Amino acid sequence: MARLEITQIDHVSVLITNLEKSRYFYREVLGLKEIAKPKTFDFSVLWFDLGNQQLHLLLKPQPDTVSPRHFALRVKDVPAARLYFRERGIPTEETTPIPRCDRFFIADPDRNRIEIIQWLEPYDPIRSGAATLDGEPAV
CA within 20 to 30 Å of 7's CA: 20, 30, 86, 87, which one? Predict the structure, then answer.
């Protein structure tokens, strides 16, 4: 039997309710590069390039339900990012610490959660003290 080989996340999609507000937030505030959607799409959607991944913003009449769901954007300097958002009046939300990591959350105009994260060292489950998987027996 063939084995599935997943290589990476290709894209993340989130719901938006206003093209111009979202375009401004993602393009101007976050500085993401907008790219053209496929010409076969006959609906409104904004696409942004994130290197080898993309972010798709789907226009819908209602925003998504506010929840802990989120995507994360990696930055080189989280303290500078905190200051950047605070200077622009965008609230930041601190959260549970992760060892050797600095992070916080912001929200877009439709209250979609976005984690801003900087890894000070690559994540190591053993060094973090979490050597077991939730729901799995300890070894």
Answer: 30
